[in-house]
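User: Okay, second chain of the day. Same drill as before: sequence in, structure tokens out.
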Amino acid sequence: MHPVWDLDPVFFTVPLIDRPIRYYGLFFAAAFLLGFLLYRWQTVRSGGSEEDAVSFIIPGFLGTVIGARLGHVLFYNMGHFLSDPAWIFRIWDGGLASHGAAAGLALALLYQSHRKKLPFLCLSDRFSFSAALGAALIRLGNFCNSEIVGKVAPDGSPFGVRFPLYDGPFAPPRYPTQLLESLMGFLILGALLLADRRMGRNARPLGALSGLFLILYFLGRFLVEFLKERQGSFDNLALSRGQQLSLLPLALGICLFVWALWRRAPGNPAPGGPADRAKPPATNPKGGGRGRKGKRGKGRKGS
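Assistant: Same drill. Structure tokens below.
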């Protein structure tokens, strides 16, 4: 007997204003909050300040939301937009694309790189952990919404889940691809943490984590798409729209990862980082250090 998933997507309704709060929105907020904490951890550990991490909140949020919305319009629902242009602003009606979010985040990181005078790959390496966690949490939100479902599972398959909110009361069992992609995101986060440790943390090659994330995430997306339901009549080629959009970042990730391991550029160029703090303090010739003849200079009394 296949399990039935018919959770009401609305977690609760705000009194007085009668505004529904969905589980998807909660997972979206959790992705931003926990993603920020991971990015702050990476930034501070690499010698940056907490203000450097905080300054990325607004660009990162805008890049994600605007990019995800535009990606959904351009890649999946241009017809709806042309018939109702105002719909593009009604993001509460649904319609966000992960490939568009990735492009928007890349632009936000490029902007932050220009602001902070740091290499783009330095920032993208730091953000790769947040991207993996965010992808995992957003797919849990999709599962709560009973959307982005998998194809109908064959007879006898033990992996099907019924989605009455998607298919109606006689819902067939479908592959729970949302949970599969969520698990993929958590596994990628674990792989990035392990790779970060093996590569020497702040001594890791510049761009290595960014390349590894692109490889693992978009390869996983490409494979899971074989089990996912197509998202419209336009999506009728041998490869789905999601698979087509995954090929370029996957190829980019492979090139970037190989280049990073070959070049071995330092991944922590931020001034004031651990490498700088490890340097011994300069000797003050007029202070309490020793001169070239080994004599002690005049230091402060009482210390």
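The radius of gyration is 24 Å.

User: Thanks, on to the next one.
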